[in-house]
Design goal:
The complex is a heterodimer. By secondary structure, chain A is an alpha+beta fold. Helix content of chain A is 37%, strand content 20%. Chain A has 4 domains: 200 residues, Histidine kinase-like ATPase, C-terminal domain (Heat Shock Protein 90, 2-Layer Sandwich), CATH 3.30.565.10; 81 residues, Helicase, Ruva Protein, domain 3; 134 residues, Ribosomal Protein S5, domain 2 (2-Layer Sandwich); 46 residues, no CATH class. Chain B is an alpha/beta fold. The chains are: A alpha+beta, B alpha/beta. At the A-B interface, helix 12, helix 13 and helix 14 of A face helix 1 and helix 2 of B.
């Protein structure tokens, strides 16, 4: 038999190959956005690294136009640096990361960010990415590398070591295609918002249009987040079976108690019993709970039963020290330093839990002053989200609030000169896509955001009503005085009495009565304040939200019910 | 124009104005917060006087005080209107309410605010002043735009000129804003009744057909909601010449309400009902019940809309629509779900209204109370 001329062969596709063809999935869908993505991945890594090493970040970003639509991007930090061995893997291999397996709040999650930048550069310019790093041991490592897309491995083009320079940090230079703009979804906007949400960082930006510096406004880092183990509520079948195979635990019970948070022997046993995992005890001649079965012997069916059982058991909520919120003070300082507003308020909600993942919502509101139009800043683990605002839980929550009730002009979204910053801190932020641009709408997340917004809006509303009152008092007096002239003239024409004397008396009456009115108002105010000073209950406690496992689908507000059915007359 | 001395009646009104000024001046002199008392002209302060059959103003008053931010501006305007009226009266002239608005309008020094922004601000102040002083706009030497026409066998003396309303061609005599006795006198009238029609178009139809000649009557229209001059004229014609008054309007909430204003007076001018209302007036038509009676084709009716239904439901509750004939008619309208315009009668022929409909109604005394 003759051999066919061509054999269609199926073969394995590497992640790098996959993303080579599907770069839009990671946010590289257009030239303007691509520049932003590269800068963002660089900065996110730099901020994560410096914070983890407890160093106040100094970040330098440069974008230089080499020729039309071709740019050189440099991101440099003063972080702890990367060891020689790690450099090629971190930059030259997709899905290589320190953060994916760790349950700790950080900007990066998947180990996809910076290496996709490297891939994007080599795809659009053919250039290797240049990495310079030192861990402070006097040695400076230079690398020029690309990614071997077929094998998803680094392809080092050049490497060298310098001696004698004492520094630590990383500098990455990319050459890639792009388009530099300064609109509201740009590198500049990203850095502006980053400066607000990371007020302890110094950021210097050499852009094609000149240098901009964002000075740090505080000298302290937020508290360091702790690493936690996963919580059983958030674990799915696939992950559970992988963990069962990788664990060092000898029995299924020790597996549950050692690999997960908040599972003691008692709860662990209960789950195993509920899952119906048993073995035949020959001595006793009957089936008994299989606490001691080896994790590797658990069948796929039993894994599924375990997941079901978890939902029936009441588990203690995960610990929340894995979260590192910004804190109300830092939010207010960040907003003040970059926006120069007339008023700021901030609220940090107590931690809450969605699907077993702890999270915390924070909101800051800045009003007036140098602020011109309304702006919404969405942040996830301190990273600004600039795209896909419409799909985001944050946008939906803002729209669900009746801002006018708080004296803030709005048309669904506020239209007043106000900047609203919403931060979600979590060990695992539920993004709607790999490009990490909008937060999924879990009801509990929307609820928390709304509560924080309302609390903040109340503070702003109090301020505004105070302002309006002062304005009103000034205006009121002028109203009484304004009409004195014409009133006096009219009385003169009716009675023949001298207008001047009448006017003088009217002004005396105004003076006398205004004092009376203001005194009355002060008394009323004092009365209100004493009433308001009632002790506030245990608000700072972690809220009890248990039945989280059986999560309802993300809430879609019944828009239809709002639509009025118009009658045909 | 020769300076006229205010006549007796004018002198009395002028005195009322001066008294108002003196009262306020007195309060200011004592450093008291000045205050003008004004009867409340709203639904909450009117009642239907069964005895006279008129809508009347109740006892509620509001205080317009200077030291109330919501009142200060109006307080000033009230006194300005009073002062301006006194000035006009002293000059022996009268002026339109629009003239008055312009006479009062000026910019308040140091602001961008005018003493009155537009006429809709000064008109209610005039009405307030009328109610406060218990006088008539006409007595303050103010007049409104003319509205309405009359035709028929009556001779009128209008500021000295003799006007024969049976010789007015196709246009009729335009009813002036002030029809008080010092302006208008009835010299001779042979008419048997007055027919008031809501619409000018119908008035023209009837005039063209010389309906007034055939039926020996006056025909009058107020062109929609009749102005005061028109209502006062009906009132005087009825009182002084003892003429029955029949009113003919569209068969809808608005038309029937126009009838009620002619008959009982309006809520807004309830303090003038004695002079403006004619309780003896009868409603000749149109009604929805006429549709069956006169075999009017259904296709000329108009479906009631939301606003119509709301209006009719409100009217069902007014005391002066309580007579059972009215309740029946209003309920019938809701039940059949349509209204109709006077013009709809033309579906039965152009002259149907003047040759069949009205004569039959009058002859059979088929009226609503």
């Amino acid at each position: 038999m003759e051999k066919p001329k061509k054999i269609v062969q199926a073969r394995e596709i590497s992640v790098s190959e996959f993303f080579e063809k599907n770069r839009h999935l990671l946010g590289y869908d257009n030239k303007i956005k691509a520049l932003l993505m590269v800068v963002k991945e660089g900065c996110d890594n730099s901020l994560d690294a410096t914070e983890e090493a407890r160093i106040l970040p100094d970040i330098y970003v440069k974008i230089e136009e080499l020729e039309k639509e071709r740019y050189k991007i440099v991101v440099r930090d003063n972080g702890p640096g990367i060891s020689k061995k790690q450099i090629p893997k971190i930059f030259g291999k997709l899905l290589y990361g320190s953060k994916f397996h760790k349950l700790k709040q950080s900007r990066g999650q998947q180990g996809l960010g910076i290496s996709v930048g490297v891939l994007y550069s080599q795809l659009t310019s053919g250039h290797a990415t240049e990495i310079v790093s030192s861990t402070g041991d006097g040695k400076t490592h230079h690398y020029r590398l690309k990614i071997d897309v077929k094998r998803n491995e680094p392809k080092i083009e050049e490497s060298a070591v310098d001696n004698g320079k004492e520094w630590h940090g990383v500098q990455v230079s990319f050459i890639c295609e792009g388009l530099y703009r300064e609109h509201k979804q740009s590198v500049l906007e990203y850095l502006k918002q980053t400066a607000i949400s990371n007020p302890y960082a110094n950021i210097t930006f050499d852009s094609p249009t000149g240098r901009m510096e964002f000075r740090r406004g505080v000298e302290e880092l937020p508290k360091e987040p702790k690493e936690i183990k996963p919580h059983l509520y958030g674990v799915e079948v696939g992950i559970l079976s992988r963990m069962l195979h990788e664990t060092k635990a000898r029995t299924i019970l020790t597996f549950l108690t050692s690999e997960f948070t908040r599972i003691g022997r008692l709860t662990g046993s209960e789950i195993i019993k509920k899952a119906g995992i048993t073995y035949y005890n020959e001595k006793a001649g009957k089936e008994e709970p299989g606490f001691n079965i080896s994790p590797r012997k658990v069948t796929d069916e039993q894994v599924a039963n375990l997941i079901k059982a978890v939902k029936e058991v009441k588990l203690t909520r995960p610990p929340t020290d894995c979260l590192s919120p910004l804190g109300e003070d830092l939010i207010e300082k960040g907003l003040k330093k970059e926006l120069n507003p007339e008023f700021v308020a901030a609220i940090s909600r107590p931690p809450a839990v969605y699907r077993g993942w702890p999270f915390q919502i924070e909101v800051g509101i800045a009003y007036g002053g140098s602020i011109e139009g309304p702006k919404i800043m969405r942040l996830a683990n301190r990273v600004p989200l600039l795209y896909q605002a419409g799909d985001c839980a944050i946008t939906k929550s803002i729209q669900a609030i009746d801002w006018r009730r708080y004296g803030i002009e709005s048309d669904k979204l506020p239209t007043a000169p106000v900047v609203i910053m919403i931060h979600m801190a979590s060990v695992w932020v539920p993004f709607t896509s790999e490009s990490k641009e909008s937060i999924a709408s879990y009801p509990i997340i929307i609820k928390e955001i709304k509560l924080a917004l309302q609390e903040c809006a109340r503070k702003l509303s109090l301020y505004l009503s105070g302002m309006r009152k002062a304005q009103w008092q000034a205006e009121r007096k002028s109203i009484f005085e304004r009409y004195a002239d014409e009133t006096a003239n009219a009385i003169h024409e009716l009675t023949g009495k001298p207008a001047d004397a009448i006017k003088e008396n009217i002004l005396k009456i105004v003076e006398k009565n205004i004092k009376k009115i203001e005194l009355l108002e002060k008394r009323e105010e004092a009365l209100k304040n004493t009433e308001a000073q009632k002790p506030n209950g245990a608000a700072a406690e972690v809220k009890e939200e248990t039945a989280e496992a059986g999560e309802e689908p993300p809430e879609e507000k019944a828009e239809a019910s709002k639509k009025e059915v118009k009658e045909n007359a | 124009m020769p300076e006229k001395k205010p006549k007796g009646d004018s002198r009395e009104t002028e005195k009322k104005l001066v008294n108002l000024g003196n009262e306020v001046a007195e309060q200011i002199n004592k450093l008291k917060n000045p205050d003008v008392t004004i009867p409340v002209r709203a639904l909450s302060n009117i009642f239907f006087d069964e005895k006279s059959g008129l809508v009347k103003l109740g006892q509620k008053v509001s205080h317009r005080t200077y030291m109330n931010v919501a009142h200060t501006r109006k307080f000033m305007q009230s006194l300005m209107v009073a002062a301006e009226c006194k000035k006009i009266m002293n000059q022996g002239v009268s002026t339109s309410i629009r003239d008055l608005y312009y006479a009062l309008k000026r910019t308040i020094p140091g602001t961008q605010e005018n003493t009155v922004e537009d006429q809709s601000e000064s008109d209610p102040v005039i009405e307030d002043l009328e109610a406060t002083l218990n006088t008539l706009r006409e007595k303050l030497h103010l007049k409104a735009d003319r509205k309405g026409y009359v035709v028929g066998p009556i001779v009128i003396r209008d500021t000295g000129d003799r006007i024969d309303c049976s010789k007015m061609g196709s246009s009729g005599w335009a009813i002036p804003s002030n029809v008080e006795e010092e302006m208008i006198k009835f010299e001779k009238c042979t008419a048997d009744f007055i027919l008031v029609v809501e619409k000018d178009a119908i008035w023209q139809r009837l005039n063209e057909d010389k309906f007034w000649k055939k039926h020996n009557c006056l025909i009058l229209t107020g062109k929609g909601q009749p102005a005061r001059g028109c209502r006062r004229l009906i009132n005087r014609l009825h009182k002084e010449l003892k003429l029955p008054v029949y009113v003919c309007c569209d068969a809808d909430g608005w038309g029937m309400y126009i009838y009620s204003v002619i008959k009982q007076g309006s809520i807004n001018l309830s303090f003038l009902s004695d002079r403006l209302g004619t309780p003896a007036a009868k409603y000749i038509g149109l009604t929805t019940q006429d549709v069956e009676k006169f075999n009017i084709p259904k296709n000329v009716t108009i479906k009631l809309n939301k606003g119509d239904i709301k209006r009719v439901n409100e009217m069902l509750k007014y005391v002066w629509f309580k007579p059972k004939e009215w309740q029946e008619e209003l309920k019938n309208m809701l039940q059949v779900g349509y209204k109709l315009e006077l013009e709809a009668l033309s579906a039965k022929g152009i002259k149907f209204i003047s040759e069949t409909y009205l004569p039959q109604k009058i002859q059979e005394k088929d009226f609503l109370p």
